[in-house]
């Protein structure tokens, strides 16, 4: 897990609005300076509008207002940095950068603001996430050794009681205008949580109204509350838009102050609130308004330890991408600062939008053994369950892949600890290859290796691919840096390998990439990726290293106007598949490569074997009728993964009452 050193910057107002005294407390010592804002207060609104990265016209926005800022002056971040980091303050900052680069920590730049001070309050609206160290070509919010967090000086202790798992998360969904893809956000978050290193219990609250949200928050305690939907300002108040008690009657705004009152009674458990909605960070400033009028500042004032919010409008796609990466990091046990930094990296022109407010020390949720906590929520006493809500989750467990697992296990044993095994899983969402990967890691590999899953578990790290490919050297540097951030910040492969050697179980490296991105990189990128693992140090290897690459094939778009795009997508997927066939036939030194075959559907026997082997709430006649109807309409014996998933989901929904479980319990077949 990433460790932090704090570079605390505190502002004190002076007799002039344009000048502020700065006090710094850092690992390299203290310093004082003067900050003169490069943006005048009277120009703040207009400048911030232009400072936000342009968002493409026509994107679905998570807001009610129709305005969207355009054009980013590239020098605002540079001007802001030079105004803040000058004289002794810059000297201390450079010294701290040298210390963290040479050690194993990351420098957390903590912008500390007292909004009750009228002279300081306007500084909360400045885009601190834009700070750019031009001489080092580094943005401090995205750089390898720095993160930026805002700290509002409120009358609450920064000390938190000990975390008692499992981690409990409430996801609040509200889409009164029916114009957001919240289902996709839910699906992608669930996939990340399904492979978590942290024991997580989560609930989904669809169509949230004020009364239903109030009832849930007053009855239950959560560590994280995540809101997905619309946000903005209603007059001078920051608001979230919930649904009305009568469906179809539009939105009802809930002020940040009202939400804060609901959450105050849960402060003993609550650690984090995520507001995945536009303009919830409270970046709007006027001298005559309450400085805590925004949703996020109101929650911080109420005592919430950490809040992630959006300071500008964010596109629907951007919000989904950010949420997926955020929970991928939290599920790996990373602190919230690293999770937000990683979330920025998946956003392209919207990376400036997320804001982190934190008043505690590197908020993280410790990795916890499921066996130490007892059965997970939704796991029946007999150990069998069904995920009612997406039947595709079941499909990898129905297909007989015994031969594949035997082959994978044999290659793993033949490779030994000195040779990394690279396994490539490819296919589209309907083929459930990511669930197959979960099955391999949680069931098959422990069985092949003879691991006692009650005592040890595989160590998993997510290895992010770069946005752009600029040659092997830069690609390898990126891989080293990204992996080191998960294992040991600043470490090179020999040091990381020594860290792996000390672990009690094999190490799994996971990567995901779209087929279109892979194709855009060119055919050489796969050779470069394999060459990286071929050069992996083996002199201290005593632990097996497994590298999984999941290549997601993008499904063709539908509609006659998109016919050309669909053909292009199919051609790209076919080209990637041909390349993988060639890779699978080739031999390489010091690395073993295997390409797992695609799932091409399931037949009646697959489902029947699964039904009887897992005590599923389906009758033999259900399965027979399901395939008979399919054959009558298509003349085919096998079903595609997507079709089978939908049919199974319908059957399981109809039969799930026999399980007699609470409506909010999630049951997953494992």
Structure description:
By secondary structure, the protein is α/β, with parallel strands linked by helices. It has 21 helices and 21 strands. The strands form five sheets. It has a six-stranded mixed sheet, with helices on both faces. A five-stranded mixed sheet has the order 3-2-1-4-7, with helices on both faces. Strands 18-19-20-17-21 form a five-stranded parallel sheet, with helices on both faces. The relative contact order is 0.10. Residues 53-59, 64-73, 368-393 and 657-670 have low confidence and may be disordered.
Work out the number of β strands.
21
Q: What Rg is obtained from the alpha carbons, in whole angstroms?
A: 26 Å
Shape: globular
Alpha plus pi helix count? 21
Helix/strand-derived category reads: alpha/beta
Strand percentage lies at 15-25%
Fraction of helical residues: 25-40%
**Could you tell me how far the N terminus lies from the C terminus, measured between alpha carbons in angstroms?**
27 Å
What is the residue-mean pLDDT, rounded to a whole number? Answer: 78
Largest beta sheet: strand ordering: 9-8-10-14-15-16
Please give the largest β-sheet.
Answer: 6 strands, mixed
**Which stretches of 5+ consecutive residues score pLDDT under 50?**
53-59, 64-73, 368-393, 657-670
């Amino acid at each position: 897990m990433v460790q932090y050193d704090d570079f605390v910057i505190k502002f004190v107002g002076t007799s002039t609005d344009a000048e502020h005294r700065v006090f710094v407390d850092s690992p390299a010592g203290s310093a004082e300076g003067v900050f003169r804002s490069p943006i005048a207060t009277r120009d703040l609104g207009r400048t911030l509008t232009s400072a936000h990265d342009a968002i493409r016209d026509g994107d679905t926005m998570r807001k009610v207002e129709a305005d969207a800022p355009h054009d980013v002056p590239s020098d605002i971040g540079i001007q802001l940095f030079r105004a803040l980091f000058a004289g002794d303050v810059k000297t201390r900052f450079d010294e701290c950068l040298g210390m963290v680069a040479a050690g194993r920590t990351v420098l957390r730049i903590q912008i500390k603001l007292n909004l009750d001070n009228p002279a300081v309050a306007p500084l909360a609206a400045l885009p601190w996430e834009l700070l750019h160290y031009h001489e080092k070509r580094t943005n401090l919010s995205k750089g390898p050794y720095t993160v930026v967090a805002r700290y509002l000086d409120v009358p609450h202790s920064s000390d938190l009681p000990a975390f008692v798992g499992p981690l409990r998360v409430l996801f609040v969904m509200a889409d009164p205008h029916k114009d957001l893809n919240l289902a996709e956000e839910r699906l992608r978050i669930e996939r990340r949580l399904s492979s978590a290193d942290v024991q997580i219990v989560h609930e989904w609250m669809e169509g949230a109204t004020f009364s239903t949200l109030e009832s849930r928050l007053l009855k239950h305690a959560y560590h994280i509350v995540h809101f997905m939907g619309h946000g903005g300002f209603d007059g001078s108040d920051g608001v979230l838009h919930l649904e009305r008690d009568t469906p179809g009657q539009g939105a009802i705004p809930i002020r940040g102050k009202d939400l804060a009152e609901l959450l105050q009674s849960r402060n003993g458990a609550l650690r984090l609130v995520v507001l995945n909605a536009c303009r919830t960070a409270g970046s709007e400033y006027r001298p005559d308004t309450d400085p805590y009028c925004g949703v996020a500042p109101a929650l911080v004032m109420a005592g919430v330890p950490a809040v992630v919010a959006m300071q500008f409008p964010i596109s629907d796609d951007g919000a989904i991408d950010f949420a997926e990466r955020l929970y991928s990091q939290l599920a790996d046990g990373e602190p919230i600062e690293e999770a937000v930094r990683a979330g920025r990296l998946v956003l392209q022109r919207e990376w400036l939008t997320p804001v982190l407010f934190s008043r505690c020390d590197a908020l993280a949720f410790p990795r916890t053994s499921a066996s130490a906590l007892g059965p997970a929520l939704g796991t029946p006493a007999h150990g069998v369950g069904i995920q009612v809500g997406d039947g595709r989750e079941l499909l990898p467990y129905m297909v007989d892949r015994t031969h594949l697992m035997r082959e994978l296990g044999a290659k793993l044993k033949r490779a030994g600890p000195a040779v990394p095994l690279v396994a490539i899983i490819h296919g589209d969402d309907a083929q459930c290859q990511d669930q197959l990967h979960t099955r391999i890691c949680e069931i098959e590999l422990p069985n092949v290796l003879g691991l006692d899953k009650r005592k040890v578990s595989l160590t998993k790290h997510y290895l992010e691919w770069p946005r752009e490919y600029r040659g092997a050297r830069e690609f390898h540097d990126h891989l080293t840096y990204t992996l080191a951030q998960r294992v040991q910040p600043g470490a090179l492969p020999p040091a990381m390998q020594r860290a792996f050697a000390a672990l009690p179980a094999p190490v799994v490296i996971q990567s995901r990439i779209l087929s279109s991105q892979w194709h855009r990189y060119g055919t050489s990128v796969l050779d470069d990726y394999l060459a990286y693992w071929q050069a992996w140090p083996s002199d201290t290897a005593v632990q097996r290293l497994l590298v999984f690459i999941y290549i997601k094939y993008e499904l063709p778009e539908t509609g006659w106007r998109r016919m050309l795009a669909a053909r292009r997508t199919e051609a790209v997927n076919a080209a990637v598949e041909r390349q993988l066939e060639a890779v699978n036939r080739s031999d390489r030194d010091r690395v073993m490569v295997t390409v797992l075959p695609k799932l091409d559907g399931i037949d009646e026997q697959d489902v029947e074997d699964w039904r009887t082997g897992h005590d599923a709430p389906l009758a033999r006649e259900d399965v027979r009728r399901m395939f008979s109807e399919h054959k009558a309409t298509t003349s085919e014996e096998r079903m595609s993964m997507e079709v089978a998933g939908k049919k199974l989901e319908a059957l399981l929904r109809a039969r799930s009452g026999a399980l007699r479980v609470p409506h909010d319990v999630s049951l997953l077949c494992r």
